[in-house]
Amino acid sequence: MELSYQKSLSYQKLAKKNVFNPFAILKQMDIRGGTLNYEGITVLNDVETASENVGKMGRLLPSLASLQRVAQKLEKAGEHLCPYPVNIYKLW
Q1: Rounded Cα gap, residues 34 and 50, in angstroms
Q2: Which of the 8 DSSP states describes residue 53?
Q3: CA 31-11-23 angle, 5° bins
Q4: d(CA 15, CA 61)
Q5: Greatest pairwise CA separation for the chain in angstroms
Q6: Hey, is 39 helix, strand or coil?
């Protein structure tokens, strides 16, 4: 029984690292054009934690805060790679 539990934990860590990592989720959110937003991620996190007694380490989906931290890092890197000026013009 202990061996299968350890195997389950290793699969969970693998999925969390390679499939449900914040970068991959943000990438798909960007590609899909707003079909999944932070509110949707919050709902999915609530469903995941409500179904069973899951602590922070037992979750597959990243938290909203971790997604926002990665989004800030990506935005900062994007500004460096592709800077754009924002000009505000008066129309009248």
Answers
A1: 25
A2: T
A3: 25
A4: 9
A5: 75
A6: helix
CB contact set of 67 (below 8 Å; sequence gap of 6+)? 22, 25, 26, 38, 41
Question: Taking the complete model, does pTM exceed 0.85, yes or no?
Answer: no
90 vs 50: CA distance, rounded Å: 51
**Domain residue ranges of the chain, discontinuous segments joined by +:** 2-81
Q: Which of these, 46, 45, 26, 48, lies nearest to 37 by C-alpha position?
A: 26
For residue range 34-58, list pLDDT tens digits in order. Answer: 788 888 888 888 888 886 666 656 7
DSSP-assigned letter for residue 91: -
Tell me which residue of 13, 19, 26 sits closest to 58, measured CA to CA: 13
State both tokens at 33.
């054009």
Segments in the chain below pLDDT 50: 1
Tell me the CB-side half-sphere exposure of residue 92, using CA atoms within 13 A.
0
pLDDT of 92: 65
